[in-house]
Write a structure and sequence with these properties.
about 220 residues, alpha+beta, Glutaredoxin, 2 domains, 9 helices, about 10% strand, membrane, redox-active center, transmembrane helix
Length: about 220
């Protein structure tokens, strides 16, 4: 009888374990894709901004100019946002530097901040040109972000002084702006690039354009506070 009771206890234990495991899996499947940032929307004060400053919805990209995924996002998702929402005035877009890829990332961020300070109107041209200069993934680890390369990329931008840009890079004059971005991405728990936050909602898959559209529509239909 004791053996029979022990067997029953083992069976019941196994059944409880299976039931708990099933509940855990079920809960994981039902988790929503986006998550509300507990820190609220990222501050865009002093950040490059594309679109109307008073647009009802703000999208922030936390990115790295050396990040292949950021380049892919900029080539595929970003143009759709511009055509569908930014041009219409419904959305504006800010970019925050996240220099995860070492010294080259920092140099690229310093250059971008220098260009923005010298002429905000050409920042987005430089932004696009710098990402377009990123080598193919197989050669991604090769040195390509250099002062010479950055000067070359701005050589067709008359409003950008090569002397000023060189000085900013050599003396790291725009490091305070890069450090502001570092504080910002750490505050919002950014661990990968690109990270996209719409309002105060962090998108778990930045390439899921349908989810991005859904969040934008929710933000647009939300009552004004």
């Amino acid at each position: 009888m004791k053996n029979k009771g022990a067997k029953i206890a083992v069976i019941l234990t196994l059944l409880v374990f299976v039931f708990v495991a099933w509940i855990v899996v079920l809960n994981q499947k039902n988790d929503p894709v986006p998550e509300k940032a507990p820190t609220g929307p990222p501050s865009i004060e002093g950040q490059p901004l594309l679109g109307e400053s008073n647009a009802p919805v703000t999208i922030v990209e936390f990115g790295d100019f050396k990040c292949p995924a950021c380049k892919a996002w900029g080539d595929t998702v970003f143009p759709k946002l511009v055509d569908e929402y930014i041009t219409s005035g419904d959305v504006n877009f800010a970019y925050v530097n996240v220099p995860f890829h070492g010294q080259e990332s920092i140099l690229a961020a310093l250059a971008a901040e220098s260009v923005y300070q010298q002429d905000p109107n050409v920042y987005w041209d430089f932004h696009k040109t710098l990402f377009s200069s990123q080598p193919e993934t197989a050669k991604h680890d090769e040195l390509w972000v250099t002062t010479e390369k950055l000067l070359e990329l701005t050589s067709t931008m008359p409003s950008i002084s090569p002397e000023k840009l060189t000085q900013d890079l050599e003396q790291e004059q725009t490091m305070p702006q890069v450090e502001t971005d570092t504080t910002l991405y750490k505050k919002h728990g950014v661990g990968v690039t690109p990270t996209i936050i719409i309002g105060d909602t962090k998108i778990s898959d930045p390439f899921d354009y349908a989810e991005i559209q859904k969040i934008i529509k929710e933000e647009l239909s939300a009552p004004n506070e």
